[in-house]
Amino acid sequence: MNTKRFHRYYCLGTTFLLLTVLLSLNFSVYANETKVLNLEQSLATAKENNLTIQAALESLKAAEAQINASRATMLPRLTANGNYTYFRDVQKSVIQAEGGFGFPVPEEEMNEMEPSVPDNEAELIELEFGAQHNIQGTVSLTQPIFAWGRYYDAYKAAKIGYQAAQEDVETAYQKLRVDVFNAFYAVLITQEFVKVAEQSLELVEKQLNIAQTAFETGTATNFDVLRAKVQLANAKSQLIRAKNGVKNAKNIYKTTLNLPLSQEISVQGTFEVKDVDIQLDALIDIALDKRPEVRKALLNEEVGEKQISIAKTRRLPDLAFFSNYQISHNERLTQMNRIWSLGLQINVPIFDGFATSAAIKQSESILKQSQLGIAQIKAVVESEVRKAYLDLHEARSLIDTQRETVSQAEETVRIATLQFENGMITTVAMTDAQLALMQSKVNRLQAYHDYVIGLVRLEKAIGQRIE
Question: Are the CB atoms for 311 and 360 separated by under 8 Å?
Fold first, then answer.
C-alpha cells in the first residue's frame, strides 16, 4: 500500500471524526441552552405551536372551502366524456331483395307488377349494422337559471359559516391567552416564593446564631436553641417545596406553549397593576357585543334562517339551460358525425315522500335551538363578567392591604430581633414574628398574581382588551 496515500486518508478520516464530535457537542450545548421568554414572546410562541389553535385554523380553512363549493353551484358546469368501443362481432341481419329492395325497376311500367316469387326462391342479402371500431365524444354545458334563490342562500349561509369559524378561532386565541397568562405568572410567582423562602431561611439562621451565642453566655436556655433548629429545618423544607413548585410550574408552562419538557426555560416579567375605570354595566354591554361566543350564536341563527329558506325552495320548480355537442366516428363513415343541441330544462317536484316537509321541520328545530342557545350564552357571559369584575376588585383591595401589612411585619421582625438579642423575648415570639412576615409577603405576591390573572380573565369575559 502507498504510505503517503495511507497517511492522507488517515488525516482526512481523523479530521472528519473531530468535526463530527465538535458538531455533536455544539448541538448538545444548543439543546441544553436556557430559553428566556417574556410574556409577549410566550404568547407568540403559544400561538405558533398550540395544537388547539392549529385545529381551529384548519376548521377555518374548511369553512372557506365550503364557500367555494357553494359558489360553484351557481356557475356553469362543463363536462366532457369520451369512449372507444370495439365489437369483435358486428350485428348482422338478412333481408329479402325484391325489385331493388321494393323500388320499381326503371324499364318496368309503374302499373305492372312482377309475379310473386315464393319466399324460398327470393334473393336474400346479408347486411352488417355498425362497425367494429367506434369512437364517441360528448361535451355538455349546464347552467342554473332560476331556483328561487336556493343556490344563493346556500352561498350566503356558507359565508356566514365562515364568519362563525372566525369567531371560533378568536375564542381559541382568547382562551389560549388566559392559559398562557396563568402558566407564565405561575412560574413567576413560584420564583418569588423561592426568594421569600430564602429570605426566611436567612432570618432563621440568624436567629439560631443568636440563640447559640446566648446559650453559650448563659443568657438563654437550650430550649431556644432547639426551637431555632426546628424552625431552621422547617424553613429548609419550605425552600425545597418552593423550588419544586418552580419545576412543576415550568413543566405546565412548557406544555401550554407546546415546548419540549427537556427544554430549559426561564421567564422574565413583573406583576403590573393596571387600574380598571369601567363600570360593571358598561362591561356587560361590551361583552354582549364583543364576546365571540355571542357573535357566533347570532351567526348560527342567521344560518338557520337561510337553511329554512333553502328547504322551502325544494317544493318549487327550477329552470336550467343546457347544451350538448357530440361527435362519433367509425371505419365505415367517410365523415365524422357531429351533433349540437341546446335547450331549457325545467324540473317540477311532484312527490318526494315528504322529504321536503321533514327538512323544513328539521331546519326550524335547529333555528329554535340556536335562538335558545343565544339566551343561554348571554346569561353565562353576564355571569362571567360579574364574577371577573368582583374578583379583580377583591385582588386590588388585597394589594393595598398587604402593602401596609408587609411594612408592618418587617418592622415587627426588626424590633423582635433586637429584643431577642437582648433576651427580652423568647424564641417563640421571635418565630411568630418571622412567620408573620413570610406569610404577609406570600399574601402580597398572591394578591398581585390574582390581580393580573383577574384582569386577563375580565378581558376574556368581555371579549376585548382593556386599555
Answer: yes
Q: Closest Cα to residue 264, out of 42, 39, 36? A: 36
| Domains in the chain: boundaries | 42-80+149-317+355-462
User: Which string of b and e fits 253-279 if b means at least 16 CB within 10 Å?
Assistant: bbebbebeeeeebebebebeeeebeee
Q: How far apart are CA 135 and CA 438, in angstroms?
A: 94
Provide CB contacts within 8 A for 405, sequence distance 6+: 440, 443, 444
Separation of alpha carbons 250 and 36, rounded Å: 12
Q: Residue 349 region, left (φ>0) first, then alpha (ψ -120 to 50), else beta? A: beta
Q: What is the DSSP string of 251-276?
A: HHHHHHTT--TTS-EEE---------
For the chain, what's the residue count?
A: 467
What Å distances lie between residue 187 and 1, 42, 152, 261, 404, CA to CA?
65, 12, 53, 14, 25
In the structure, how many helices (H) and strands (E) does the chain have? 10, 8
pTM for the complete prediction?
0.75
Query: Of all helices (H) and strands (E), which one includes residue 97?
Result: strand 91-97
Amino acid occupying residue 99 = G
Pick 42-80+149-317+355-462's CATH classification: 1.20.1600.10, 2.40.10.10, 1.10.287.950, 3.90.180.10.
Answer: 1.20.1600.10
Model confidence over 128-163: pLDDT tens digits? 778 889 999 999 999 999 999 999 999 999 999 999
- Bridge pairing between strands 265-267 and 35-37: parallel
- The DSSP code for 80 is E
Q: Is 105 exposed, middle or buried (0-12, 13-18, 19+ CB in 10 A)?
A: exposed
Span 173-187, pLDDT tens digits: 999 999 999 999 999
